Amino acid sequence: VVSWLRDLGTRVEVDRVGNITGTWPPDGFEPAVLVGSHIDSVRAGGRYDGALGVLAGIEVLETLISGGVETARPVAVASFTDEEGSRFPPDMLGSLVAVGGMSLEEALDVTAPDGAVLGDELARIGYSGASPCLLAVAPAAYIELHVEQGPRLEHAGVPIGAVTGVQGISWAEITVSGQANHAGTTPMDLRRDAGHVAASIATYVRTLCDRLGPSQLATVGRIELAPNLVNVVAGSAVLTVDLRNTDDDALAEAERLLAVRCAELAADEHVTITTRTLARYAPVEFDPEAVALVEAVSAGLGLASMRLPSGAGHDAQMLARVCPAGMIFVPSAGGISHNPAEHTDDEYLEAGANVLLRCVLHLAGAVTP
Ligand SMILES: [Zn+2]
Question: DSSP alpha helices (H): ranges in the chain?
Protein backbone atom coordinates (compact mmCIF):
# COMPACT_ATOMS: atom_id res chain seq x y z
CA VAL A 1 0.00 0.00 0.00
CA VAL A 2 2.76 2.43 0.91
CA SER A 3 4.68 1.72 -2.30
CA TRP A 4 1.54 2.23 -4.39
CA LEU A 5 0.84 5.52 -2.63
CA ARG A 6 4.47 6.60 -3.20
CA ASP A 7 4.34 5.57 -6.87
CA LEU A 8 1.33 7.83 -7.31
CA GLY A 9 3.31 10.78 -5.95
CA THR A 10 1.10 11.28 -2.89
CA ARG A 11 2.45 12.61 0.43
CA VAL A 12 2.78 9.43 2.47
CA GLU A 13 2.68 9.71 6.25
CA VAL A 14 2.80 7.00 8.90
CA ASP A 15 1.74 8.06 12.38
CA ARG A 16 3.00 6.69 15.68
CA VAL A 17 0.27 4.06 15.88
CA GLY A 18 0.97 2.93 12.32
CA ASN A 19 -1.94 4.57 10.51
CA ILE A 20 -0.93 5.24 6.90
CA THR A 21 -2.17 8.11 4.75
CA GLY A 22 -1.41 9.22 1.21
CA THR A 23 -2.52 12.75 0.35
CA TRP A 24 -3.01 14.34 -3.04
CA PRO A 25 -1.79 16.88 -3.96
CA PRO A 26 1.33 16.29 -1.84
CA ASP A 27 1.45 19.93 -0.78
CA GLY A 28 -2.22 19.97 0.24
CA PHE A 29 -2.42 20.58 4.00
CA GLU A 30 -5.97 21.93 4.36
CA PRO A 31 -8.74 19.55 5.55
CA ALA A 32 -8.92 16.69 3.06
CA VAL A 33 -11.70 14.46 1.87
CA LEU A 34 -10.55 11.20 3.40
CA VAL A 35 -11.39 7.71 2.14
CA GLY A 36 -10.00 4.41 3.30
CA SER A 37 -10.43 1.44 5.59
CA HIS A 38 -7.97 -1.16 6.92
CA ILE A 39 -5.69 -3.91 5.62
CA ASP A 40 -5.44 -6.03 8.74
CA SER A 41 -7.61 -9.11 8.96
CA VAL A 42 -8.79 -11.73 11.39
CA ARG A 43 -6.74 -14.92 11.46
CA ALA A 44 -9.09 -16.88 9.21
CA GLY A 45 -10.39 -13.88 7.31
CA GLY A 46 -11.24 -13.10 3.71
CA ARG A 47 -9.58 -10.87 1.15
CA TYR A 48 -12.19 -8.09 0.86
CA ASP A 49 -12.91 -7.01 4.43
CA GLY A 50 -11.05 -3.71 4.77
CA ALA A 51 -8.70 -4.15 1.83
CA LEU A 52 -11.47 -3.12 -0.58
CA GLY A 53 -11.82 0.34 0.94
CA VAL A 54 -8.07 1.01 0.88
CA LEU A 55 -7.46 -0.32 -2.63
CA ALA A 56 -10.55 1.44 -4.03
CA GLY A 57 -9.28 4.63 -2.41
CA ILE A 58 -5.93 4.23 -4.17
CA GLU A 59 -7.82 3.58 -7.40
CA VAL A 60 -9.80 6.80 -6.87
CA LEU A 61 -6.56 8.76 -6.38
CA GLU A 62 -5.01 7.16 -9.44
CA THR A 63 -8.09 8.07 -11.48
CA LEU A 64 -7.99 11.69 -10.33
CA ILE A 65 -4.25 11.99 -10.93
CA SER A 66 -4.12 10.25 -14.30
CA GLY A 67 -7.15 12.23 -15.46
CA GLY A 68 -5.59 15.52 -14.40
CA VAL A 69 -8.64 16.28 -12.25
CA GLU A 70 -8.06 19.13 -9.83
CA THR A 71 -10.11 19.32 -6.65
CA ALA A 72 -10.81 22.26 -4.39
CA ARG A 73 -9.82 20.16 -1.37
CA PRO A 74 -7.03 17.58 -1.01
CA VAL A 75 -8.04 13.94 -1.26
CA ALA A 76 -6.40 11.40 1.04
CA VAL A 77 -6.47 7.63 1.45
CA ALA A 78 -6.04 6.09 4.91
CA SER A 79 -5.20 2.58 6.02
CA PHE A 80 -5.96 2.35 9.72
CA THR A 81 -4.04 0.10 12.11
CA ASP A 82 -5.66 -2.83 13.92
CA GLU A 83 -9.26 -2.38 12.82
CA GLU A 84 -10.12 -5.95 13.69
CA GLY A 85 -8.71 -5.80 17.20
CA SER A 86 -8.88 -9.55 17.65
CA ARG A 87 -5.20 -9.66 18.59
CA PHE A 88 -4.81 -6.17 20.07
CA PRO A 89 -8.19 -5.03 21.46
CA PRO A 90 -10.15 -2.83 21.15
CA ASP A 91 -11.19 -3.08 17.53
CA MET A 92 -10.78 0.07 15.41
CA LEU A 93 -7.82 0.96 17.61
CA GLY A 94 -5.92 2.98 14.98
CA SER A 95 -8.82 5.17 14.01
CA LEU A 96 -9.83 5.51 17.67
CA VAL A 97 -6.39 6.93 18.49
CA ALA A 98 -6.51 9.13 15.38
CA VAL A 99 -9.69 10.86 16.58
CA GLY A 100 -8.42 11.25 20.14
CA GLY A 101 -10.63 8.53 21.67
CA MET A 102 -7.67 6.65 23.17
CA SER A 103 -4.26 7.93 24.16
CA LEU A 104 -1.26 6.91 22.08
CA GLU A 105 0.51 5.59 25.18
CA GLU A 106 -2.42 3.39 26.16
CA ALA A 107 -2.68 2.04 22.62
CA LEU A 108 1.02 1.21 22.33
CA ASP A 109 0.82 -0.69 25.63
CA VAL A 110 -2.00 -3.01 24.50
CA THR A 111 -0.89 -6.61 25.02
CA ALA A 112 -2.16 -9.51 22.93
CA PRO A 113 -3.21 -12.89 24.38
CA ASP A 114 0.08 -14.22 22.92
CA GLY A 115 2.03 -11.67 25.00
CA ALA A 116 3.02 -9.37 22.15
CA VAL A 117 2.85 -5.62 22.82
CA LEU A 118 1.44 -3.41 20.06
CA GLY A 119 4.13 -0.73 20.26
CA ASP A 120 6.89 -3.35 20.06
CA GLU A 121 5.24 -5.07 17.13
CA LEU A 122 4.82 -1.78 15.23
CA ALA A 123 8.51 -1.02 15.76
CA ARG A 124 9.46 -4.54 14.68
CA ILE A 125 7.63 -4.23 11.34
CA GLY A 126 8.82 -0.66 10.76
CA TYR A 127 5.43 1.01 11.20
CA SER A 128 6.01 3.00 14.35
CA GLY A 129 5.83 6.21 12.33
CA ALA A 130 7.02 9.73 12.94
CA SER A 131 3.79 11.67 12.42
CA PRO A 132 2.49 12.74 15.83
CA CYS A 133 -1.22 12.34 15.11
CA LEU A 134 -2.87 11.40 11.88
CA LEU A 135 -5.79 13.74 12.32
CA ALA A 136 -4.16 16.85 13.74
CA VAL A 137 -6.48 18.52 11.24
CA ALA A 138 -9.95 16.95 11.06
CA PRO A 139 -10.88 15.80 7.55
CA ALA A 140 -13.52 17.69 5.61
CA ALA A 141 -15.38 14.38 5.29
CA TYR A 142 -14.76 10.63 5.42
CA ILE A 143 -16.26 8.01 3.13
CA GLU A 144 -15.49 4.29 3.45
CA LEU A 145 -16.26 1.59 0.92
CA HIS A 146 -16.61 -1.85 2.53
CA VAL A 147 -18.15 -5.22 1.86
CA GLU A 148 -21.45 -5.64 3.69
CA GLN A 149 -20.32 -8.83 5.50
CA GLY A 150 -23.98 -9.80 5.77
CA PRO A 151 -26.72 -11.11 3.47
CA ARG A 152 -29.09 -8.16 3.08
CA LEU A 153 -27.91 -6.59 -0.20
CA GLU A 154 -27.58 -9.93 -1.95
CA HIS A 155 -30.97 -10.99 -0.67
CA ALA A 156 -32.54 -7.78 -1.98
CA GLY A 157 -30.65 -7.97 -5.29
CA VAL A 158 -29.31 -4.43 -4.71
CA PRO A 159 -25.65 -3.60 -5.55
CA ILE A 160 -25.12 -0.58 -3.28
CA GLY A 161 -25.85 -0.03 0.40
CA ALA A 162 -26.13 3.49 1.80
CA VAL A 163 -25.08 2.78 5.37
CA THR A 164 -27.10 4.65 7.98
CA GLY A 165 -24.98 3.83 11.01
CA VAL A 166 -23.29 1.17 13.09
CA GLN A 167 -24.74 -0.79 15.97
CA GLY A 168 -23.26 -0.57 19.45
CA ILE A 169 -20.62 -3.09 20.48
CA SER A 170 -19.68 -4.47 23.89
CA TRP A 171 -16.76 -6.88 24.23
CA ALA A 172 -15.87 -8.54 27.51
CA GLU A 173 -13.27 -11.08 28.52
CA ILE A 174 -14.54 -13.19 31.41
CA THR A 175 -12.16 -15.19 33.57
CA VAL A 176 -13.56 -18.00 35.71
CA SER A 177 -11.35 -19.37 38.47
CA GLY A 178 -12.36 -22.67 40.06
CA GLN A 179 -10.48 -25.77 41.14
CA ALA A 180 -8.83 -28.29 38.81
CA ASN A 181 -9.53 -31.77 40.08
CA HIS A 182 -9.88 -35.45 39.15
CA ALA A 183 -12.88 -36.14 36.90
CA GLY A 184 -13.48 -39.56 38.46
CA THR A 185 -13.06 -38.92 42.15
CA THR A 186 -14.56 -35.44 42.64
CA PRO A 187 -18.28 -35.63 43.58
CA MET A 188 -20.48 -33.41 41.42
CA ASP A 189 -21.68 -31.32 44.36
CA LEU A 190 -18.12 -30.52 45.44
CA ARG A 191 -16.84 -29.37 42.08
CA ARG A 192 -15.73 -25.87 41.34
CA ASP A 193 -15.92 -26.42 37.61
CA ALA A 194 -14.77 -23.44 35.54
CA GLY A 195 -15.62 -25.26 32.30
CA HIS A 196 -19.21 -25.78 33.34
CA VAL A 197 -19.55 -22.11 34.27
CA ALA A 198 -18.02 -20.99 30.96
CA ALA A 199 -20.44 -23.18 29.06
CA SER A 200 -23.34 -21.84 31.14
CA ILE A 201 -22.37 -18.27 30.27
CA ALA A 202 -22.15 -19.21 26.58
CA THR A 203 -25.66 -20.64 26.58
CA TYR A 204 -27.03 -17.83 28.75
CA VAL A 205 -26.05 -15.07 26.31
CA ARG A 206 -28.30 -16.73 23.71
CA THR A 207 -31.28 -16.26 26.00
CA LEU A 208 -30.54 -12.51 26.10
CA CYS A 209 -31.39 -12.41 22.42
CA ASP A 210 -34.80 -13.99 23.01
CA ARG A 211 -35.41 -11.58 25.86
CA LEU A 212 -34.24 -8.35 24.19
CA GLY A 213 -35.51 -8.99 20.68
CA PRO A 214 -34.02 -9.41 17.20
CA SER A 215 -31.74 -6.36 17.41
CA GLN A 216 -29.77 -8.06 20.19
CA LEU A 217 -26.84 -10.22 19.07
CA ALA A 218 -24.59 -12.28 21.32
CA THR A 219 -21.51 -14.37 20.57
CA VAL A 220 -19.03 -16.35 22.62
CA GLY A 221 -16.20 -16.65 20.12
CA ARG A 222 -13.38 -17.86 22.33
CA ILE A 223 -13.24 -20.25 25.28
CA GLU A 224 -9.97 -21.47 26.73
CA LEU A 225 -10.00 -24.05 29.45
CA ALA A 226 -7.12 -25.04 31.66
CA PRO A 227 -5.67 -27.56 31.98
CA ASN A 228 -7.90 -28.59 28.99
CA LEU A 229 -7.66 -32.32 29.53
CA VAL A 230 -10.23 -35.09 29.14
CA ASN A 231 -10.09 -36.37 32.69
CA VAL A 232 -9.61 -33.13 34.64
CA VAL A 233 -12.30 -30.76 35.88
CA ALA A 234 -11.31 -27.40 34.38
CA GLY A 235 -9.69 -25.19 36.99
CA SER A 236 -9.96 -22.02 34.98
CA ALA A 237 -11.68 -20.70 31.90
CA VAL A 238 -11.28 -17.54 29.87
CA LEU A 239 -14.04 -16.66 27.42
CA THR A 240 -15.09 -13.66 25.41
CA VAL A 241 -18.60 -12.25 25.02
CA ASP A 242 -19.48 -10.01 22.06
CA LEU A 243 -22.81 -8.19 22.53
CA ARG A 244 -24.26 -5.86 19.89
CA ASN A 245 -27.42 -3.80 19.57
CA THR A 246 -28.55 -0.76 17.59
CA ASP A 247 -30.21 0.51 20.80
CA ASP A 248 -27.73 1.60 23.47
CA ASP A 249 -30.21 1.19 26.34
CA ALA A 250 -30.93 -2.38 25.28
CA LEU A 251 -27.20 -3.07 24.99
CA ALA A 252 -26.66 -1.75 28.52
CA GLU A 253 -29.50 -4.00 29.74
CA ALA A 254 -27.84 -7.03 28.11
CA GLU A 255 -24.60 -6.16 29.90
CA ARG A 256 -26.43 -5.79 33.22
CA LEU A 257 -28.27 -9.12 32.86
CA LEU A 258 -25.02 -10.88 31.98
CA ALA A 259 -23.33 -9.44 35.08
CA VAL A 260 -26.23 -10.64 37.27
CA ARG A 261 -26.05 -14.13 35.77
CA CYS A 262 -22.28 -14.29 36.30
CA ALA A 263 -22.73 -13.40 39.96
CA GLU A 264 -25.32 -16.19 40.35
CA LEU A 265 -23.08 -18.74 38.66
CA ALA A 266 -20.11 -17.72 40.79
CA ALA A 267 -22.16 -18.27 43.97
CA ASP A 268 -23.65 -21.58 42.80
CA GLU A 269 -20.39 -23.18 41.68
CA HIS A 270 -18.08 -21.53 44.25
CA VAL A 271 -15.87 -20.00 41.59
CA THR A 272 -14.71 -16.43 41.13
CA ILE A 273 -15.59 -14.57 37.96
CA THR A 274 -13.84 -11.40 36.82
CA THR A 275 -14.79 -9.39 33.77
CA ARG A 276 -12.55 -7.12 31.74
CA THR A 277 -14.05 -4.78 29.14
CA LEU A 278 -12.17 -5.14 25.85
CA ALA A 279 -14.27 -2.69 23.83
CA ARG A 280 -17.43 -0.65 24.35
CA TYR A 281 -18.82 1.58 21.64
CA ALA A 282 -22.25 3.20 21.55
CA PRO A 283 -24.27 2.97 18.33
CA VAL A 284 -23.33 5.58 15.72
CA GLU A 285 -25.50 7.32 13.13
CA PHE A 286 -23.78 8.52 10.00
CA ASP A 287 -24.12 12.03 8.59
CA PRO A 288 -27.56 12.27 6.88
CA GLU A 289 -26.03 14.21 3.98
CA ALA A 290 -23.42 11.52 3.45
CA VAL A 291 -26.12 8.84 3.40
CA ALA A 292 -28.15 10.88 0.91
CA LEU A 293 -25.05 11.50 -1.20
CA VAL A 294 -24.37 7.76 -1.56
CA GLU A 295 -27.98 7.28 -2.67
CA ALA A 296 -27.90 10.19 -5.13
CA VAL A 297 -24.55 9.18 -6.63
CA SER A 298 -25.76 5.59 -7.04
CA ALA A 299 -28.92 6.74 -8.78
CA GLY A 300 -26.83 8.94 -11.07
CA LEU A 301 -24.79 5.90 -12.07
CA GLY A 302 -27.94 3.83 -12.67
CA LEU A 303 -27.25 1.66 -9.64
CA ALA A 304 -30.00 0.60 -7.25
CA SER A 305 -29.28 1.31 -3.60
CA MET A 306 -30.88 0.72 -0.23
CA ARG A 307 -30.36 2.09 3.26
CA LEU A 308 -29.16 -0.31 5.92
CA PRO A 309 -27.32 -0.21 9.25
CA SER A 310 -23.97 -1.94 9.65
CA GLY A 311 -23.76 -5.03 11.81
CA ALA A 312 -19.97 -4.77 12.03
CA GLY A 313 -17.84 -2.04 13.52
CA HIS A 314 -15.91 0.16 11.10
CA ASP A 315 -13.30 2.90 11.14
CA ALA A 316 -16.01 5.23 9.77
CA GLN A 317 -17.75 5.19 13.16
CA MET A 318 -14.62 6.65 14.75
CA LEU A 319 -14.19 9.28 12.04
CA ALA A 320 -17.86 10.22 12.58
CA ARG A 321 -16.71 11.75 15.91
CA VAL A 322 -14.70 14.44 14.14
CA CYS A 323 -16.18 14.95 10.66
CA PRO A 324 -19.19 14.12 8.47
CA ALA A 325 -18.81 10.41 7.73
CA GLY A 326 -20.58 7.82 5.64
CA MET A 327 -20.15 4.36 4.16
CA ILE A 328 -20.85 2.49 0.96
CA PHE A 329 -21.58 -1.24 1.14
CA VAL A 330 -21.37 -3.78 -1.67
CA PRO A 331 -22.85 -7.29 -1.47
CA SER A 332 -21.09 -10.21 0.21
CA ALA A 333 -21.82 -13.52 -1.52
CA GLY A 334 -23.86 -15.67 0.81
CA GLY A 335 -23.45 -13.00 3.49
CA ILE A 336 -20.16 -14.68 4.44
CA SER A 337 -17.28 -12.73 6.02
CA HIS A 338 -14.43 -13.32 8.48
CA ASN A 339 -13.97 -16.51 6.49
CA PRO A 340 -11.61 -17.32 3.59
CA ALA A 341 -14.73 -17.98 1.47
CA GLU A 342 -15.61 -14.27 1.63
CA HIS A 343 -16.41 -13.08 -1.91
CA THR A 344 -17.80 -10.07 -3.77
CA ASP A 345 -18.34 -10.17 -7.54
CA ASP A 346 -16.12 -7.92 -9.65
CA GLU A 347 -19.11 -5.99 -10.98
CA TYR A 348 -20.02 -4.96 -7.42
CA LEU A 349 -16.44 -4.05 -6.56
CA GLU A 350 -16.36 -1.79 -9.62
CA ALA A 351 -19.78 -0.32 -8.86
CA GLY A 352 -18.72 0.46 -5.29
CA ALA A 353 -15.48 2.07 -6.43
CA ASN A 354 -17.37 4.22 -8.92
CA VAL A 355 -19.78 5.37 -6.23
CA LEU A 356 -16.78 6.18 -4.03
CA LEU A 357 -15.15 8.17 -6.85
CA ARG A 358 -18.31 10.22 -7.46
CA CYS A 359 -18.75 10.89 -3.74
CA VAL A 360 -15.14 12.12 -3.57
CA LEU A 361 -15.60 14.34 -6.62
CA HIS A 362 -18.68 15.86 -5.01
CA LEU A 363 -17.16 16.32 -1.55
CA ALA A 364 -13.75 17.54 -2.73
CA GLY A 365 -15.21 19.89 -5.32
CA ALA A 366 -13.87 18.89 -8.72
CA VAL A 367 -12.46 21.94 -10.49
CA THR A 368 -13.35 21.90 -14.16
CA PRO A 369 -10.43 23.19 -16.23
ZN1 LIG B 1 -13.48 -4.34 7.97
Answer: 2-7, 51-66, 93-98, 104-108, 118-124, 152-156, 194-212, 248-269, 288-300, 315-319, 346-364
What's the CA-to-centroid distance between 18 and ligand 1, angstroms?
17
The alpha carbon of 93 and the centre of ligand 1 are apart by a number of angstroms equal to 12
Sign of the torsion formed by the C-alpha atoms of 109, 114, 115 and 119: negative
Q: What are the φ/ψ torsions at residue 327 (nearest 5 degrees)?
A: -140, 150
CA-to-CA distance for 178 and 84, rounded, in angstroms? Answer: 31
Q: Are 58 and 22 in contact (CB under 8 A)?
A: yes
Residue 74 in contact with residue 32, Cβ under 8 Å?
A: yes
Cis omega before residue 90 (within 30°)? yes
Considering the entire predicted model, what is its pTM?
Answer: 0.86
Give the pLDDT confidence of 5-51 residue by residue, as tens digits: 999 999 999 999 999 999 999 999 999 999 999 999 999 999 999 99
- Which residues have CB atoms below 5 A from the ion given as ligand 1? 49-50
Report how far ligand 1's centroid is from the alpha carbon of 6 (Å).
Answer: 24
